[in-house]
Every structure is written in C-alpha cells, then in structure tokens.
Specification:
Shape: flat
Order of helices and strands: HHHHHHHHHHHHHH
Subunit structure: The complex is composed of two ATP-binding proteins (NikD and NikE), two transmembrane proteins (NikB and NikC) and a solute-binding protein (NikA).
Distance between the termini: 13 Å
Main location: membrane
CATH topology of the largest domain: MetI-like fold
Helix content: over 70%
CATH class of the largest domain: Mainly Alpha
CATH architecture of the largest domain: Orthogonal Bundle
Subcellular location: Cell membrane
Pfam family, one: BPD_transp_1
Transmembrane segments: 101-124, 136-159, 171-191, 229-256, 276-298
Radius of gyration: 24 Å
Oligomer: single chain
Strand content: under 5%
Number of strands: 0
C-alpha cells in the first residue's frame, strides 16, 4: 500500500508537469483554431467576429492565465469541449477508446500467438532450424515498417483477393488486417527477447538444482524457467501496451479505423486544443497505471522480491 501511495503522488506530479509542457507547446505551435471553427476559408468573416470568438475562448489572455483556468477545470474533472463537435472531451475520448482498446488487445493476442511458441522453441532447440527461422522472422519484422506492411496487406487481401475489408469498423473481419499489422511488428521483438531470456534462465543454478532433484523436464520448464524468464518480457510488454494504445495512430489512419488515434490526428489538423490536451493526459495516465501494474506483477513472478520486502519490515 505504501508503494501504491507513493506512485499515486508521482502520478499527480507527472500529470501536472505533462499538462503544463503539452499546453505550452500546443499554444506555441503554428495554426489558428479560430479559422477552423469559423471556416474562414469558405465564408467571409469580419475581424470583429474573429476577435469576439478569441475573447470567448480566452485566447487573448496570457498563456499562464489560460493554463490556470484550464487547470481549475481539470481538477473538477472537466477537460472542456471539442471546438469541432461542441461535445465534452471526456465523452469524445470515451466514445473512441473502446475501439482502440479492442485493436490493442487483438494485436497483443496476435503477437502472443506468434512470439511465445516461436521464441520458446528457438530457446529449446538452440541453433536448430527453428532457431534460424526465428532469426529470419525477427529480422524481417524489425526491418519492415508497420505502415508499409499494412499497405501490402491491403493490396493483397483487400484489393486483389477481396477477402477482407480494409477500412472502417464493423465486424470482426475489420480487425484482422490492422491487428495482423501491429501484431507482426511487435512479435519480432518478443521472439528474440523470450529466446534470450529463456536461455539465460535455463543456465541458472536453480534450474540445475531442480534437475538434480529429479523434477521432470516439463515441470522445470513451465513452473521454473518459463515463469522466471517472463520478468523482462512483462517489462517490455507494459511498454508495448502503452505504446500501442498511444501509437496506433498511423494504423488507425491507414485503415480508417475510428479509434482514439484517428480522432487525435483530426484534432491536430483542426487545432482542436481540448481534444489534443485530453488525449495527452489520458494516455499519460494510462501508461503510468500500466507501469504500476507491471511493477506489482514482479512480486508475483519473483518470490525474492517479496522476501526482501518482508526482511525490510
């Protein structure tokens, strides 16, 4: 509980710092949201109307006053309203987030189904043909950009064969191509990570002791070696989960998938500051929570950490 309380304090300080930096840089970026709101390029608008809207939105006030006003609303759980849709930012993010979360989960499932068996077999049969195949897969996966892989999938499975849809969100079929694109790109990292972690663990003294006690090879592998080797994998897994939630932007735009990533790209183009600020804080909060859960999982995977905590008490 003490660790969780400390992390919660760090979380508040992190969000304050993140909100201030993002707010300042967002205001300093080129572009004028007033032009998009009033649609100046298509309709004749007077200077008086422009200044009136600036005053209404608070753009004419000093930036520290703007940030202070935003911060007061933030502590009231109010992230403002979207300039484009006039809907609350929290509602907009909550409406799009389930789609991004679904894409993230399916991508991680694809990654797990590829990386775990191949990485495990590569470690068990070191320098055999399966190990060489895993190296080739990892090399290709690390070398090919995800957006280019997505374009290949669209060209082959959607345009030529017509098997799978390439745009939008509806049925499970709409998830296959973007999930494969993200999952294959991730699996390259985890194949090599799991292989090296397993090989290092299999050479540890406690594995040799387990063999000397006559434990079966299957029990040694699954209940000792595999569990112990998951610690570095889970560390990277937490980073991957956070980066997937915040980094599916390119894939969502490529496949016209209506998630949070596509929403924030549209917000950046239209200078929709409340949506951009809300997205940054939402992703920052989610990543910190994921890292906290990863740290807590170490206590379950490594009994030595629990013993050290007991000794400190």
């Amino acid at each position: 509980m003490k660790q969780i309380g400390k992390r919660m304090l760090e979380l508040v300080l992190f969000l304050l710092l993140l909100s201030f930096i993002s707010f300042v840089f967002m205001k300093a970026a080129p572009g004028d949201p007033v032009r998009y709101i009033l649609n100046i390029d298509d309709v004749a608008i007077s200077d008086e109307q422009i200044e009136e809207l600036r005053d209404e939105l608070g753009f004419n006030k000093p930036i520290y006053i703007q940030y202070w006003n935003w911060l007061i609303r933030f502590f009231q759980f109010d992230l403002g309203y979207s300039y484009m849709t006039s809907q609350p930012v929290l509602d907009e993010l909550a409406r799009k987030f389930p789609a991004t979360l679904t894409l993230t989960i399916t991508s991680l499932i694809v990654m797990t189904l590829i990386a775990v068996p191949i990485g495990t077999l590569a470690a068990l049969y070191k320098n055999k043909w399966i190990d060489h195949v895993s190296r080739v897969i990892a090399l290709i996966g690390a070398s090919v950009p995800s957006f280019w892989l997505g374009l290949l999938f669209i060209q082959f499975f959607s345009v030529r064969l017509g098997w799978l849809p390439s745009m939008g969100k509806g049925t499970f079929l709409h998830l296959i191509l973007p999930s494969l694109t993200l999952g294959l790109a991730l699996s390259a990292v985890y194949i090599r990570l799991l292989r090296s972690s397993l090989l290092e663990t299999l050479g540890q003294d406690f594995i040799r002791s387990a063999k000397a006690r006559g434990l079966s090879r299957k029990r040694i592998f699954f209940f000792h070696a595999f569990r112990h080797s998951l610690m570095p994998v889970i560390t990277i897994f937490g980073i991957s989960l956070g980066s997937l939630l915040g980094g599916t932007v390119i894939i969502e735009v490529l496949f016209a998938y209506p998630g949070v990533g596509k929403l924030v790209v549209e917000a950046i183009v239209r200078r929709d500051y409340p949506i951009i600020q809300g997205y940054i804080l939402f992703m920052g909060l989610f990543i910190v929570i994921i890292n906290l859960l990863v740290d807590l999982s170490y206590r379950f995977l490594n009994p030595e950490l629990r013993l050290k905590e007991v000794e400190r008490r």
